[in-house]
């Protein structure tokens, strides 16, 4: 490539020197030459050699630059990187990663795992020994490719459709794992599989087919269940002896024990003809403490006797009667499901335990929940004086102890909007503001007061009376606020609106008297 020099002349004496010929250069590379000062560009002369077409041509550029150009030619390619160099680079990067991991953790096992993940498999000792040879061969091949242009590879035809993804191989775990790590490795979850057994593929039975199959079904364990029942009946004399010595009996086990208690009631009636036996089915929804006390009072007092309605007053009457004028023969109290939801409260268990401590009351109760013993503290447990017996029957509840329709509806969320008894009302009231709780207390108190006055014909409280009482206690100031507070009770079916014979609106709390009294106690104490 020729370099052109600019001749600078003075405005007074022009320069007559011939420019020195530049040394020969490669004509294939264009170059750009600029002067050192932009102030002399007006007097600069540009000499262009046009003797040969292979020589580069120049033209005047801006800011005193001289631009030279030549005919473009094809630049030879430097070649492609071959496989040997690529493999060598991969090995070097793997070695760097391993060295970095070893410096951070100080353990060589993690470096080996990282190398296996990079290569997809464990490297052999021969490959480690050939690393330097492949590196040198790769450098030699690159130098040879610089001299001679490489032939570009023939492009392969791309298959039709979306390319398939190759599944990544799981890294091989180390051999020397501690026992706990080996356990988690062997019990790791696998891929989730979707079952082809779907419900739409099954055929549904009609009502007639369902009843026909249920009637024709025979329990394959019927003989074993009958044998268990015979074993329990053989223990009835042992139970009699324990009851006569001042103990009570608690039955536990898997299955319904209702048939066992009924069999023992028949055994007592036959052995002690004329004995008073009280059977309480506490598994019935809505059973409360007052029901048990009323049943026991019915065995001790004549039907014409007027009994108090409050559970505490009735409990006091029963204790006084058993102490001052006990019956001639003891009363047998058989309770199915002593741990039922209606009797799980600590106060209910304490009342029943005080009655069971009397020598004139003999209690035989069944427990369904495995943690039923947690209902009693040391004092209540001492009053019960229980002797536990295993009464496993493996008998289903047959829709008596547990209503299948109610349970399924509760599981599916179709049990209705109403709350379940006293406990359900307590849960709802805890989530409501203080004004709502005060209003509910007013409604319950007015309804209980109406029942005490003998107003059995008219249920609930008149709307205007409840509204004025709420305003007197500063629960609400306007009727709109009163309606807003009542709406929450309507949604949970804790209060119902009814019309009496005169067309007046009445607010009714749909619970029994004993439940209303218990709610009133909780609201006053809370």
Automatic annotation (TrEMBL):
Q: Which PROSITE patterns match?
A: HMGI_Y
Where are the compositionally biased (Low complexity) regions? Answer: 28-39
Positions of region (Disordered)? 1-179
* Matches recorded under InterPro entries: HMGI/Y_DNA-bd_CS (IPR000637), ORC2 (IPR007220), RecA-like_ORC2 (IPR056772), WHD_ORC2 (IPR056773)
Ranges for domain Origin recognition complex subunit 2 winged-helix come to 455-515
* Positions with biased composition (Basic residues): 157-168
- Which GO molecular function terms does the record list? DNA replication origin binding
In the record, biological process GO terms are:
DNA replication; regulation of DNA-templated transcription
Q: Where are stretches of biased composition, namely Acidic residues?
A: 123-140
Primary location? nucleus
**Origin recognition complex subunit 2 RecA-like domain: which residues?**
225-391
Please provide, in alphabetical order, the Gene Ontology terms of the cellular component aspect for this entry: nuclear origin of replication recognition complex
Q: Does the keyword Cell cycle apply?
A: no
Q: What UniProt keywords apply to this chain's record, in alphabetical order?
A: DNA replication, Nucleus
Which compartment or compartments is the protein found in?
Answer: Nucleus
Could you say which protein family the record assigns here?
A: Belongs to the ORC2 family.
Role this protein plays: Component of the origin recognition complex (ORC) that binds origins of replication. DNA-binding is ATP-dependent. ORC is required to assemble the pre-replication complex necessary to initiate DNA replication.
Q: How does it assemble?
A: Component of the origin recognition complex (ORC).
Name of the protein in question = Origin recognition complex subunit 2
């Amino acid at each position: 490539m020729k370099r052109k020099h600019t001749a600078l002349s003075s405005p007074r004496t022009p320069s007559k020197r011939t420019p020195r010929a530049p040394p020969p250069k490669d004509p294939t590379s264009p170059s750009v030459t600029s002067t050192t000062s932009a102030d002399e560009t007006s007097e600069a002369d540009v000499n262009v050699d046009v003797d040969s077409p292979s020589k580069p041509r120049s033209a005047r550029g801006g800011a005193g630059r001289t631009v030279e150009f030549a005919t473009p030619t094809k630049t030879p390619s430097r070649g492609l990187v071959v496989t040997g160099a690529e493999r060598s680079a991969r090995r070097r990067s793997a070695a760097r990663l391993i060295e970095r991991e070893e410096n951070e953790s100080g353990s060589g096992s993690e470096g080996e795992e990282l190398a296996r993940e990079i290569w997809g498999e464990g490297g052999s000792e021969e490959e480690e020994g050939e690393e330097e040879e492949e590196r040198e061969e790769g450098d030699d091949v690159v130098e040879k490719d610089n001299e001679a242009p490489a032939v570009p590879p023939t492009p392969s035809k791309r298959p039709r459709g979306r390319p398939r993804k190759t599944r990544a191989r799981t890294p091989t775990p180390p051999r020397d794992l501690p026992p706990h790590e080996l356990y988690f490795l062997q019990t790791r979850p696998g891929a989730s599989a979707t079952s082809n057994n779907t419900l739409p593929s099954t055929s549904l039975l009609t009502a007639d087919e369902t009843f026909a199959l249920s009637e024709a079904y025979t329990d394959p364990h019927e003989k074993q269940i009958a044998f268990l029942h015979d074993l329990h009946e053989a223990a009835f004399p042992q139970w009699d002896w324990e009851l006569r010595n001042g103990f009570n009996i608690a039955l536990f086990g898997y299955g319904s024990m209702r048939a066992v208690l009924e069999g023992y009631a028949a055994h007592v009636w036959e052995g002690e003809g004329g004995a008073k036996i009280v059977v309480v089915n506490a598994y019935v929804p809505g059973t409360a403490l007052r029901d048990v006390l009323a049943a026991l009072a019915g065995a001790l007092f004549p039907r014409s006797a007027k009994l108090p309605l409050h559970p505490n007053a009735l409990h006091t009457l029963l204790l006084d009667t058993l102490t001052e004028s006990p019956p001639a023969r003891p009363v047998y109290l058989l309770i199915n499901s002593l741990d039922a939801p209606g009797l799980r409260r600590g106060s209910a268990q304490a009342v029943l335990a005080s009655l069971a401590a009397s020598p004139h009351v003999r209690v035989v109760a069944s427990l369904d929940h495995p943690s039923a013993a947690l209902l009693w503290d040391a004092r209540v447990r001492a009053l019960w004086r229980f002797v536990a017996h295993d009464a496993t029957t493996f008998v289903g509840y047959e829709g008596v102890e547990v209503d299948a329709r109610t349970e399924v509806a509760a599981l599916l969320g179709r049990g209705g909007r109403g709350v379940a008894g006293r406990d359900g009302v307590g849960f709802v009231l805890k989530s409501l503001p203080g004004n709502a709780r005060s209003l509910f207390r007013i409604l319950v108190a007015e309804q209980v007061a109406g029942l005490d006055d003998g107003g059995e014909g008219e249920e609930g409280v008149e709307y205007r009376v409840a509204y004025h009482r709420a305003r007197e206690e500063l629960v609400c100031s306007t009727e709109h606020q009163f309606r807003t507070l009542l709406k929450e009770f309507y949604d949970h079916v804790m209060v119902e609106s009814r019309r009496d014979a005169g067309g007046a609106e009445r607010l009714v709390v749909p619970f029994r008297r004993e439940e209303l009294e218990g709610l009133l106690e909780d609201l006053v104490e809370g």
